[in-house]
Design brief:
The protein has six helices and 17 strands. The protein is α+β, with helices and mostly antiparallel strands.
C-alpha cells in the first residue's frame, strides 16, 4: 500500500489562472509559497489546499503545466510528457501529468528493488539541486521514454518519497486527525479522486501483479452506472483513488468514457454541512447540480459543479 495520494492534479495551460479560478469559485486556499517553479525544471505547479492543515487534508489540488523550454533537470521528460498527451488524447478536457503517490524511504527502496527483480519498466529522474530526491515513473524506460499502460493499467503513476513532502507526523496516526472550529460549508479534505478505466479487472490485475496494490473494496453502483474499486492509502485522511468502469453507456460515466476515453474523472471534496456549501456556491454565482441521494456518496447528497465553471474540470462535494 502507498502512503498517500499526493495531489489531485490537472494538466492545463495557465495554471496560475486556474489557481485563481479555484480560489474564486470554490474557496480553495492558495498561497505564494505553494506555487512551485524552477528554471532547470520548466513547469509551474500550485499545491492548493481545501483545508489549511495537511494533517486534516494531506491530498492537495494541483493545477500544473510544463513549459516548452529546455529541461536540463530531466531532459527526457518532454518526450515522456508528449507520449502521455498522445495516450490520453490531446482533446481530453481533463488530463494528468501523473497520478502521484508516495512511499516512505524503506518502502520506496523496496519498490525499486521489486521492479528491477520483476523486470518491470520504469524510469527515474536524476537528482538535482532543486529536487535532490528520487522520483520514478512506471511504464517507461530511460532508453525509450514513452509511456505504456502495461504496468499500471493506464493510471500514469509517478512514485516519490514521502519524506520530501514534509508532512506532519500525525498524518500517519492510527486515528485520522479531525478538524476543529468548522463553520457551515467549510471544506474538510479531498476525499476521492476518480479515474475512468475501460477494463477494471485488467487494471486491478496489473496493480496486484506488478505493484502488490489491492483495492479496499470493489462495488457495483447501479444508480451511477459503474463499478468502482477504491484504492486505499496508509494515511487515513488521504484521498482514495477511485477506479471506475462504466457498466451502462447511458450514464454520466458511460457518456464521459465514450466521449473522451479513459483518464481523470472527478475530484470529490468532503465538506461540513453540504447545504451550507450549496448556499456559498450560489453566492459566488457558481452553477451546480444537487443530487438528493447518490450511491457514490454512500446514499447521501452530492453537489456536482458544472465543469464549464472550471475549464472542464469535474469537482464534487459530499458531506464529511
Amino acid at each position: 500500500m502507498f502512503d498517500l495520494l499526493m495531489s489531485a492534479d490537472m494538466m492545463l495551460e495557465d495554471p496560475d489562472g486556474m489557481a485563481e479560478l479555484l480560489s474564486e469559485k470554490l474557496g480553495i486556499y492558495q498561497h505564494k509559497r505553494w506555487r512551485q517553479a524552477f528554471d532547470n525544471h520548466p513547469y509551474i505547479a500550485h499545491f492548493l489546499r481545501v483545508h489549511k492543515s495537511l494533517a486534516v487534508s494531506p491530498t492537495r489540488i494541483e493545477p500544473q503545466w510544463h513549459l516548452d523550454k529546455p529541461n536540463p533537470g530531466d531532459p527526457m521528460f518532454h518526450d515522456f510528457l508528449e507520449s502521455l498527451k498522445d495516450y490520453q488524447g490531446r482533446h481530453r478536457p481533463m488530463m494528468t501529468h501523473a497520478v502521484v503517490v508516495s512511499l516512505s524511504k524503506p518502502d520506496f527502496d523496496a519498490l525499486i528493488s521489486k521492479l528491477m527483480r520483476r523486470d518491470i519498466p520504469f524510469r527515474m529522474a536524476q537528482r538535482t539541486p532543486e529536487m535532490p530526491f528520487d522520483r520514478l515513473w512506471l511504464g517507461t524506460r530511460p532508453e525509450n521514454p514513452i509511456y505504456s499502460p502495461e504496468v499500471d493499467g493506464g493510471l500514469c503513476i509517478e512514485v516519490m518519497g514521502t519524506e520530501p513532502l514534509c508532512m506532519p507526523e500525525d498524518v500517519f496516526a492510527d486515528e485520522p486527525v479531525q478538524p476543529t472550529d468548522l463553520n457551515p460549508g467549510d471544506m474538510v479534505r479531498v476525499s476521492a479522486r476518480g479515474f475512468l478505466v475501460r477494463d477494471l479487472d485488467d487494471t486491478l490485475r496489473r496493480l496486484s501483479t506488478n505493484l502488490d496494490w489491492e483495492p479496499k473494496e470493489v462495488v457495483q453502483l447501479n444508480g451511477e452506472g459503474y463499478r468502482r474499486a477504491r484504492m486505499p492509502f496508509r494515511a487515513l485522511n488521504s484521498a482514495s483513488l477511485d477506479l471506475i468502469e462504466p457498466t451502462y453507456w447511458d450514464s454520466d460515466a458511460g457518456h464521459y468514457l465514450n466521449n473522451w476515453g479513459p483518464g481523470l474523472y472527478y475530484i470529490r471534496i468532503a465538506v461540513n454541512d453540504l447545504k451550507a456549501k450549496a448556499d456559498l456556491l450560489k453566492e459566488r454565482g457558481v452553477k451546480f447540480s444537487w443530487v438528493d441521494e447518490s450511491e457514490a456518496a454512500g446514499g447521501g447528497s452530492l453537489i456536482r459543479v458544472d465543469p464549464s465553471e472550471l475549464r472542464g474540470q469535474m469537482f464534487e462535494f459530499e458531506e464529511v
